[in-house]
Amino acid sequence: MDPHGIFSDLLTVEVNTIVKPNMTAAKMPSLPFALLDIIENFATALLKLGVDLEPYFTPTREQCWAKIRADPQHLEDARASYAAANGGGQPREESDLYDYLGDLWPALDPSLNSWPTTEGWSFSMAGVTNGWDSFERLRIAALAADPKLSAGHEVLITRIVGACSRLKYIVQGVQQFYAPAHAPRLSLGERLGQLLRGRDRRFASWPELLNKTRNDLLRRDQRQQRVPVHHLSPEDQSTVRKIWEVGTESVLAQTCVQLDGDVITRISEDLIEAHTAAVQELVLGCHHRSVDTGLSHWRALVQVAIELVDKVFGRISAR
């Protein structure tokens, strides 16, 4: 047991008070659906700002690859990434390098490409997957639109670009590591267990869950399987959860408390300038109570972690 791993997620407590229109109070779904929710949320926000998503979501994976494979530098970088992840090997098919690309700019940069437009085209989640390239498409769309938008939208665009960058990194890493060509190595005991009981169909494999549309995930055989979330690091799980929770909503107040005692509270200008004193008092009072609740749970978790580590080291020293 690694004490660093136990304490790494307990160094900071963060409390956000946000404005949530049409609140449903739904809990975050399993990872594959949560990723699709985030994509839909960001796409809707960009569409409301007047961003045309057609040039970024119309090109298929194959069309993007055809553009990028003509770029020597991107192709070489993808080969190097593949070799690093697969023990120096090379893919059976060159197109397998697609999931190892650093970005899709050569295929989606509006200044370099002119994809045909469709009259009456409208964005639909029906054909959008939860794969890494969906986040890359949104990231490039937001970056390309940024200079054309008013200064008041900079914060939202920055949030979308940053969130898509992090999620692209997380999802691409999972797609690479759990790809059929790079399945994780199992111990002798694990391999023997699989042979004796057959593949555990209670859990879906990551290739069955990522790069899938919502309809793909709702197939009967998929609904009967569980999501192997335990294969994600706690840090990655926390990142996905926070992005899903906050999304594109307005954060009115935020408090971060560090384990060393530093406390930082940020208050949005919107709360100060656009709301009455009564609303300010209501929001800040709610925020203060949330901070108290968060700190109470935080202290309890830290105490449990300390006791757990003490017991582990006590047993080791007693041997």
From TrEMBL:
<protein>
    <submittedName>
        <fullName>Uncharacterized protein</fullName>
    </submittedName>
</protein>
